[in-house]
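tool_call: predict_structure(chain=1)
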Amino acid sequence: MTYSLIAKDTDGSIGLIVASKFFACGAVVPFVSGSVAVASQAFCNPVWGTEGRARMMAGENAEAVLADLVSRDEGQAIRQAHMMDADGKFAAHTGADCVDWAGHLIGDGHSVAGNMLAGPEVIHATSRAYLANADLPFAERLIAAMLAGEREGGDRRGRQAAGLVIHRGEAHPWLDLRADDHADPLAELSRLWDVAQERYVHFAKGMPTSERFSGYPTRDGIDADIAAAEAKRKAEGRESRSFAVEIE
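tool_result:
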């Protein structure tokens, strides 16, 4: 029902992006932390996600964790999952009874898996586009990769939902975007990322972290960054893509 991409950026950020003809796949598939990631899909078993994430955070490697999950689950033949451990090593499983086309690949710093796809070229195109767009900001690189897979047919049933989660070393996400029921969900993620540039990414610079418990408790610099981003957008002749409504 789904295809997804897990990747680790050069700065250590961990991203997981998913698209599907399935409602709210962005709520069901990703299980990410500051150091590991799991995508549980097909006939999703969320415990593969929660347990797998916890065990890899505790130091177990992806291959051993996934092998154990598969061995214990009587429904493993209809499950699909891929995951990345704290050392950046990947493992993947596509059950024998996942609906065609179904498969996975592990590449340089990333993994892709999908089921109910138009064909194997979906995941190969996703992987190639991820590798080819290293110059893009991480969120844009992930979206561009998934769009490449969609151009090859994506989920063969159609489109409905997508989700993007990025962690920057923290238990809480730095970015978490979802389009739960949309005619063009990956394009909607792209729009949301564009809107995030207006205020959110600047505000997020001051958010607390495990090492800096209070974050930046003033708006010093944040408002200036927001104003600079707005001035730049206007100078480039770009309209805001936000649907926000202000009350006068």
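agent: The chain has two domains: 2-182, 197-248. Proceeding to next step.
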